[in-house]
Write a structure and sequence with these properties.
Blueprint lengths: L21 E2 L2 E2 L3 E5 L3 E6 L9 E8 L12 E3 L10 E7 L4 E8 L2 E7 L8 E8 L8 E5 L2 E2 L4 E4 L12 E6 L3 E2 L1
Antiparallel strand pairs: 1-2, 3-4, 4-14, 5-10, 5-15, 6-7, 6-14, 7-8, 8-9, 9-13, 10-11, 11-12
Length: 179
């Protein structure tokens, strides 16, 4: 059961940007983006994580935080609800009234809520997804180097499987996020 039903970022079909080159059969740059009005939808391919059950994604963010819109900063797979190897960070989660960090594994979902940081200043976020931990401890969030206390645990499972070979999709406000 999805802790919070939502529309996920759809897979993005893009034409290879001119700065991507092929060298010995592999891409030098593995990030593809499509720019829209005020956001970039990026696909970070080549995320081979099938040999690990712990992942940390770090990013710098400068944005206006809301508590009612359903956005995502990043999501492993086009829809983490359809994969037991997916994880995601939702910055404006209406259920959490802040940030939701979540993963899905072989035993189900683990999702925690966190208070959003101050708006319109740069913050360093580190989302930790670690299936070697138990229950709510599978998901952790650091802001500006400080481990955050979850304001709510939406659901917790004891997952044991590894992550997969999935692209990571990010929906980033232009000029205000660096992943």
């Amino acid at each position: 059961m999805d802790p919070v039903p939502r529309q996920s970022t759809p897979p993005v079909s893009v034409t290879r940007p001119p700065w991507l080159t092929e060298s010995a059969g592999r891409r030098e740059n593995r990030r593809r983006c499509v720019r829209e009005w005020s956001e970039s939808v990026c696909e970070h391919s080549g995320s081979e994580l099938s040999a690990t059950n712990a992942v940390t994604i770090t990013l710098w963010v400068n944005r206006t935080w809301a508590a009612s819109a359903a956005h995502n900063l990043f999501e492993s797979t086009a829809n983490y609800n359809n994969s037991t190897t997916g994880f995601a960070l939702f910055p404006d989660d209406p259920t959490c009234k802040g940030i939701q960090a979540a993963l899905q594994g072989d035993a189900g979902y683990t999702a925690n809520c966190y208070k959003a940081p101050s708006s319109a200043v740069w913050h360093h976020l580190a989302a930790v997804f670690d299936k070697s931990q138990k229950g709510a401890a599978e998901v952790a969030l650091y802001m500006d180097g400080v481990l955050q206390t979850a304001t709510q645990n939406l659901i917790a499972s004891n997952n044991t499987n590894a992550f997969g070979n999935n692209p990571i999709y990010s929906v980033l406000p232009r000029r205000n996020t660096k992943i």
